[in-house]
Structure to design on (110 residues):
C-alpha cells in the first residue's frame, strides 16, 4: 500500500523584518528531529517538543533584537512557522486568504 502514502511534504519560508531575520523549513511525517536556534532557550525547547511529538522535522534559525525584547522573535517565528505549515499542506497564508476574500463578490442576501 505504499502507493497510497502521502508524498514527502516540505516547505521553507524566509521572513525578514526590521526586527528579525527568520528561516523556517519543515518536513511533514518524518522523524521528528529539530534544529532550532531562536536565541530564546525556553522557546527553542517548546519548538523542539512540537517537532518531536508531531513527527515533523524542523529547521528554525532566528536572529532578532533580543537586546530590546523577545516579542518580535516569538511573533515573527510563529508567523513564519504558520506560513510554512500552510505551504506544506497547500493552504494559502493569512495574507493570501485575505486578498482572495476581498476579491470575491458577495452574494446579495435574500
Amino acid at each position: 500500500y505504499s502507493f497510497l502514502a502521502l508524498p514527502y511534504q516540505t516547505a521553507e519560508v524566509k521572513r525578514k523584518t526590521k526586527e528579525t531575520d527568520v528561516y523556517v523549513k519543515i518536513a511533514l511525517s518524518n522523524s521528528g528531529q529539530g534544529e532550532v536556534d531562536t536565541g530564546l532557550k525556553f522557546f527553542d525547547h517548546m519548538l523542539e517538543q512540537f517537532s518531536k511529538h508531531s513527527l515533523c522535522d524542523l529547521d528554525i534559525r532566528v536572529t532578532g533584537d533580543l537586546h530590546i525584547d523577545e516579542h518580535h522573535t516569538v511573533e515573527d517565528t510563529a508567523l513564519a512557522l504558520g506560513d510554512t505549515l500552510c505551504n506544506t499542506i497547500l493552504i494559502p497564508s493569512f495574507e493570501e486568504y485575505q486578498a482572495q476574500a476581498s476579491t470575491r463578490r458577495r452574494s446579495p442576501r435574500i
